[in-house]
Amino acid sequence: MRRTERRIFSTTRRKAGRRKRIALWIIGLLVVFFIIGLVVYYRLIYNPNANAQAAMHTNAKIRFIEQEDRLTFQPNGKAIGPSVIIYPGALVEPASYSAWAAKLAESGHTVYIIKMPLDLAVLGKNRADRIIDEHPGKTFVIGGHSLGGAIAARYAAEHADKLKGVFFLASYADSKGKLNQKGLPVLQLTASKDGILDWTSWEKDKKNLPAEAEYVSIEGGNHAQFASYDKHRGDKRPSISEKEQQDQLVKAMNSWLNKLK
Asked: Of the residues 17, 25, 78, 143, which has the maximum number of CB atoms within 10 A of its CB?
């Protein structure tokens, strides 16, 4: 091999080695950022408390089933009225809604809590489709907590023919989830000490709901107690217990659902 050719070959090898080292550095940095992202994500998640975990069992009145895409609470007797589909709030683990979902199932309604990608309902708007399609002939209402309620409204606005009603827990229908012309009954539940709900937007977006929408305010309740998890960052301190708030929630839901039979 001539000297010039050896020089070119050596230069090419050095460049190839440099590119390889740069590629390894980039891959290494991406792995580090991914791990940091996972750590941050799991620190932000709202996990179910002891009340929720205690409800995740089959008992004499209900059957609990966990699947890859949902948690199901089924009455052991004959189910009555519409089944209930719940979209969780942002970064709230689905199991956090188990305490009141179990109570609602004891009243006779099958309840499905949807598992969302990265615990964000905005990434799984159409996940209700699978449940509805699996149960032809059955009726459903859909709703959710906080962001979950807004995304449930968007789903309902596009699939009103599949539903009997929509409910909101500390949430509202934005411009993409207008329900005022869909002919669907609506239940709006809020809590007087909610420090997370954007009350200005909630008031403004009432126009997106039918005039006949029902409004229930839980005095002394807050944002987090529509589920069962540790204190929500930025929320206000409630003046009633989690159980009291959820008992009122279930009472309001039952009253509303009984009108939809």
From this structure: 143
Neighbours of 120 (CB within 10 A): 16
Average pLDDT over residues 102-121: 96
Which among 56, 114, 54, 70 has a CA at the least distance from the CA of 89?
114
Euclidean distance between CA atoms 126 and 140, whole angstroms? 14
The token pair that represents 148 in the structure block: 């979950």
How far is the CA of 74 from the CAs of 103, 115, 118, 142, 230, in angstroms?
10, 17, 26, 16, 26
Query: What is the spatial distance between Cα 42 and Cα 38, in angstroms, rounded to a whole number?
Result: 6
Task: Tokens for 131, please give them.
Answer: 């449940």
Q: Which amino acid is at 195?
A: G
Q: What is the mean pLDDT of the chain?
A: 89
Read off the tokens for 180. Answer: 């005022």
Q: 84, exposed or middle or buried, with CB in 10 Å at 0-12, 13-18, 19+?
A: buried
Cβ neighbours of 13 (radius 10 Å): 10
Name the pTM for this structure.
0.85
Give the closest residue to 131 by CA, choosing from 62, 84, 182.
84
The reported pLDDT for the residue numbered 78 is: 85
CA dihedral 246, 250, 253, 257 (to 10 degrees): 160
Helices (H), the chain: 3-44, 50-55, 98-106, 128-134, 147-158, 199-204, 242-258
**Confidence label for 186 from pLDDT (cuts 50, 70 and 90):** very high
Res 192: pLDDT:
98
Across 224-237, average pLDDT: 94
